[in-house]
TrEMBL record:
Bilayer-spanning residue ranges: none
Coiled-coil annotated spans: none
GO molecular function: delta(3)-delta(2)-enoyl-CoA isomerase activity
A Pfam family of this chain: ECH_1
Classification lineage: Eukaryota, Fungi, Fungi incertae sedis, Mucoromycota, Mucoromycotina
InterPro entries per UniProt: ClpP/crotonase-like_dom_sf, Enoyl-CoA_hydra/iso
Name by which UniProt lists this protein: Enoyl-CoA hydratase
GO cellular component: peroxisome
Gene Ontology process terms (BP): fatty acid beta-oxidation
Length: 258
C-alpha cells in the first residue's frame, strides 16, 4: 500500500503516512476542529491502519502517532456541525472510543493547543508527548458554555487525577507542557518545534511497539472487548461512551451567541 494517503483525497482533513512500523496521522485542516466530515476522514484513516495490523500473521510492532499542524493539535468541536447535525455527539463518542481502544499503541504528539474535543482526543491516546514551550491543554466548555456528557467526562476522570480534572472541567484552567507533566496529564515534554515533538513521539511509539510485539496479541485484548475477554482497561469509559447524549436546547442557545 502506497503512502502518504489523504482523507478525503480532495481537500483532505488528514494525511496518513508511514515510517517503518510507525503510522503517522497528521491532522492539517485549519485548526483541526471536529466536524462530521473530519471525524469521518480520521475514522477512515484509522481503518486503513487497523486493516494493516490484522493483515499481519504474527504479532507486529506497529504503533500510531497522531499530531496536528502549526500552533494547533486540535481546537475542539466544530460548533456549526454540532448544532446542525442530529446525533453529532454520538459520532463524537464513536470517534473517541475508536481511538481509546485502538489495537496498537497510540501516541498523541501534542504540537500546540489541544482544547475541548482536542484535549479529549489527546487523552484517548495511550501516551501523550507535549511541546514544552508552547500550547495548552484546556477544557473550556464552562466558558462557552457547552455540554460535557458522561462519556466525555469518563475519559477525563479515568485518565487524570481528581484535582487537575476539577481544574479542567470547572475552572477551564489551561495547562502548559510543564504543568501538564507535573500533574501526570502528559508522559513526556519536548522543547522545540513541532517536527521535534513528532520525532520524539515516533521514538516513543517505536519502543512501545517493540514491547507489544513481545507480548503478542494481548495488547489489543487488554484495551477493548473481544469475543473471549471483556475490556480490562477502559470498560467504564466504554460503558459511558455508549450512552446516548443529546445536549439540551440551552447549548444551542449559548453556541448561537458565539
Amino acid at each position: 500500500m502506497a503512502f502518504p494517503r489523504s482523507f478525503p483525497a480532495e481537500s483532505p482533513f488528514c494525511t496518513l503516512s508511514r515510517d517503518g512500523s510507525v503510522f503517522i496521522l497528521h491532522m492539517h485542516k485549519e485548526d483541526n476542529r471536529f466536524s462530521v466530515e473530519s471525524m469521518s476522514a480520521i475514522l477512515e484513516a484509522l481503518q486503513v491502519v487497523e486493516d494493516a495490523f490484522h493483515a499481519e500473521h504474527t504479532p507486529c510492532d506497529f504503533a500510531l502517532v497522531t499530531t496536528g499542524e502549526g500552533k494547533f493539535f486540535s481546537n475542539g468541536l466544530d460548533i456549526n456541525s454540532a448544532l446542525n447535525t442530529p446525533g453529532f455527539f454520538d459520532l463524537v463518542h464513536k470517534f473517541l472510543a475508536r481511538v481509546l481502544v485502538f489495537p496498537i499503541p497510540t501516541v498523541a504528539a501534542i504540537n500546540g493547543h489541544a482544547f475541548a474535543g482536542g484535549c479529549l482526543l489527546s487523552f484517548a491516546h495511550d501516551v501523550r508527548v507535549m511541546r514544552a514551550d508552547k500550547g495548552y491543554l484546556c477544557m473550556n466548555e464552562i466558558e462557552l458554555p457547552g455540554p460535557v456528557g458522561p462519556g466525555l467526562a469518563a475519559i477525563l476522570r479515568y485518565k487524570i487525577a481528581p484535582t487537575p480534572c476539577r481544574d479542567l472541567l470547572l475552572f477551564a484552567k489551561r495547562f502548559n507542557g510543564e504543568a501538564a507533566l507535573k500533574e501526570g496529564m502528559v508522559d513526556y515534554t519536548v522543547k522545540g518545534e513541532p517536527a521535534e515533538i513528532l520525532a520524539n513521539a515516533k521514538q516513543v511509539a517505536r519502543e512501545l511497539g517493540k514491547k507489544v510485539q513481545r507480548g503478542g496479541w494481548v495488547y489489543a485484548d487488554l484495551k477493548r472487548e473481544a469475543s473471549h475477554i471483556i475490556a480490562i482497561m477502559y470498560a467504564d469509559i466504554l460503558t459511558n461512551l455508549r450512552k446516548p447524549f443529546h445536549p439540551s436546547a440551552s447549548f444551542a442557545l449559548s453556541a448561537s451567541k458565539l
